[in-house]
């Protein structure tokens, strides 16, 4: 073909030389920068970050049972949170909406009634057989997969509720009582913020929790292991990143046995 390759075409483009940007910083901006620096340093010192590699199995083992590795890991996080705190909470898992024009993300909600029934059985709060635990696990995975599918198709509730709230605000309508309800506040109080951040370059990617008493938990499912970056704040008496990570290890081992 006579058509030049994209790489060859790029070589013919002369790069624009860099230009020094001179910023005019007045006293007000200078003070704001100093205050922001203090706040950022305080947050950094308060961040409890723990990196954990689970080595007993990876995504290939999970896939051999025809289970989505992402769904498997998500329910393992639900089990872990329940073991540590004896309850489930609003959980955030980012879901890409790039298939839509101007699409960004929505939220796959993993804390379901099916998840609660399963984690209670796994923690022996209900005297059930191993067969029943497997059945509850399968129902949990099925529900999570269902939520994932309708969320990535733009049918999740989070963005729609936010859109209704913001459109009403822009039109001058009074805020609906739904958005003032305590339950809606708890609905958005993500004590467990999660995201799959896959990479094959050996890079560990993490982020902080989004609420003072919460966890951030990113994960990278690899062929024979799973990497986790667990974060929380030292200032919270409710959380501990290393304890959560080691509890997660136990959850994954337990799940591998059933």
Keywords:
alpha/beta, Carn_acyl_trans, 14% strand, 258 residues, 47% helix, single chain, six-stranded mixed β-sheet, 9 helices, Chloramphenicol Acetyltransferase
List the helices and strands and how they pair.
Blueprint: H1 6-11, H2 27-46, E1 47-54, H3 59-63, H4 69-85, E2 91-96, E3 105-107, H5 113-122, H6 130-155, H7 157-170, H8 182-187, E4 192-196, E5 215-221, E6 226-233, H9 241-257
Please write the CATH class name of the domain at 47-155 and 190-257. Answer: Alpha Beta
List the total number of helices. Answer: 9
Give the helix/strand class: alpha/beta
Q: What amount of the residues lies in strands?
A: 5-15%
Would you give an account of this structure?
- This protein has a 6-stranded mixed sheet.
- Helix 4 (69-85) crosses helix 6.
- It has helices at residues 6-11, 27-46, 59-63, 69-85, 113-122, 130-155, 157-170, 182-187, 241-257; strands at 47-54, 91-96, 105-107, 192-196, 215-221, 226-233.
- The chain is of the alpha/beta class and 258 residues long.
- A hairpin with a 4-residue loop joins strand 5 (215-221) and strand 6 (226-233).
């Amino acid at each position: 073909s006579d058509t030049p390759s994209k790489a060859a075409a790029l070589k013919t483009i002369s790069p624009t030389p860099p230009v020094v940007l001179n910023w005019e910083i007045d006293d007000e901006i200078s003070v704001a920068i100093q205050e922001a620096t203090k706040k950022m340093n305080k947050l950094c010192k308060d961040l409890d970050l723990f990196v954990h590699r689970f080595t007993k199995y990876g995504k290939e083992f999970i896939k051999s049972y025809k289970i989505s590795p992402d769904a498997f890991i998500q329910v393992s996080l639900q089990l872990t949170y329940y073991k540590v705190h004896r309850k489930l909470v609003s959980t955030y898992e980012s879901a890409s909406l790039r298939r839509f024009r101007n699409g960004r993300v929505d939220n796959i909600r993993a804390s379901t009634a099916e998840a609660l029934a399963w984690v209670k059985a796994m923690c022996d709060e209900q005297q059930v057989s191993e067969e029943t635990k497997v059945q509850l696990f399968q129902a949990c995975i099925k529900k999570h997969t269902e939520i994932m599918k309708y969320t990535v198709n733009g049918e999740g509730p989070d963005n729609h509720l936010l859109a209704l709230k913001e459109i009403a605000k822009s039109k001058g309508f009074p805020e609906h009582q739904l958005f003032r309800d305590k339950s809606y506040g708890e609905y958005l109080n993500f004590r467990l913020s999660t995201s799959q951040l896959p990479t094959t370059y050996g890079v560990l990617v993490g982020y902080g929790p989004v609420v003072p008493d919460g966890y951030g938990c990113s994960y990278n499912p690899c062929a024979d292991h799973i990497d986790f970056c667990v974060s929380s704040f030292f200032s919270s008496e409710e959380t501990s990143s290393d304890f959560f990570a080691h509890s997660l290890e136990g959850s994954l081992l337990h799940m591998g046995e059933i």
